[in-house]
Amino acid sequence: MLYHYTDRLSGAEIRHAGIIRATPITLHRDMFGADKGLQTKPIVWLTVNPIFEGTVVSKLFASGWPRKLIGDIWRIGVADDYQCQPLDDYTASAGIDHDWWDWTIRTGKMVQSFAADWRICDRDIPAADWRVVEVLRNITADNDTIWGPA
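Above: the chain's sequence. Below: its structure in token form.
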């Protein structure tokens, strides 16, 4: 399965709206984001990682969410053959110089999120295409995650 990870408030909004909305992101070549940046077309980030997405966890911690994570991270799953592209393929098809992704890839690695796991969808993902909507229920002693219906 492919997963879109998010916080519980955004997850509830997504479920209520019945759609994961594609939104543009701004890429930077400057480590501190001081350059003008390059805005992508609207996209949805997905991952093959079934444990959780490190960038989402890091953003939650950085914005003050409790560190327990249980109940605070949601994931929405779609079929593993859902129409999307690995990052390199998306970059080529969108005509984006790969250097624009350098800091995104580097900072992802720092939180155990790897570009090889990422998939990019260039359109909204409607609820009809979702397979599961789950919430993190537990983290085991060996750092495995247990998910349940949200």
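The chain is about 25% helix and 30% strand.
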